[in-house]
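Lab notebook, bench 4. Still working through the backlog of constructs that have no structural model yet. Next entry is a single chain of 275 residues. Request: give me the structure tokens for it.
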Amino acid sequence: MTQTAPTPADTVRERYRAAEAAEPAAWNQVLQVLHAHRSVRRYLPDPVSEDTLRLLISAAQSAPTSSNLQVWSVVAVRDPERRARLAAVAGHQAHIEQAPLLLVWTADFARLRQLAGDHDAPLEGADYLEAGYVGFIDAALAAQNAVVAAESLGLGTVYVGALRNDPERVAAELGLPSSVFAVFGLVVGHPDPSEDARVKPRLPQPAVLHHETYDLTAQRAHVADYETTIAGFYAEQRLAHSWRERVLDRLASAASLKGRHRLRESLRNQGFELR
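Model written out:
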């Protein structure tokens, strides 16, 4: 039996689990891909070709970059043993080993430091916190472009922030020089259809969208409503989760950061002064 394609309103409704979602005023394939995003954590063994990888990187390089500094790089990891070692850093997340490709996105000032050295030019500005922000933001913008490109090709993705559990170990594994820091990983592969992962509902727009000035009080009711909405999603996925408990536990203490409380130290160990 042929399955009917979802309408734009259906797609937006699924993102929020909101029955009252209106028909969008405009729609296209890019919006469809963006709204249909889901994290994939089970993959088929089929490889991701070099041609596809090059296309993902060209999409990534099409993202905005502050002052055209382009202070990011990415390491493509295919070797199963290396992916297994990186998975161990990230709490043994099985999809890192299962998928054929792990992309490790880095904030990269080594390239500009080398350029400055070649031309005997100062680069003091790279030692300030602003530079660290730019590197992290540039890497995130580039990676998200790659995600959209991958999903438009029918591939699945999932971000791996847990590589920051032990940045020094990741740097050693990938041979990162000083002034290059692994910001996060991105698993890329062909989704296993047996996973049956669904689009996870997000907070209602009134909880995140403010007009002219920020209104914290108005968010409270919408955040409370979201706890009920996402409970239905978790039940469908057979997960005994509470969003409220998960987010509060995630930031409850230094220990709950699972090693990432050392981030400032790790950045400095990797050559980021952060003045």
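Notes after review: The longest strand covers residues 180-189. Residues 13 and 21 are 5 Å apart (CA to CA). Flag for follow-up if needed.
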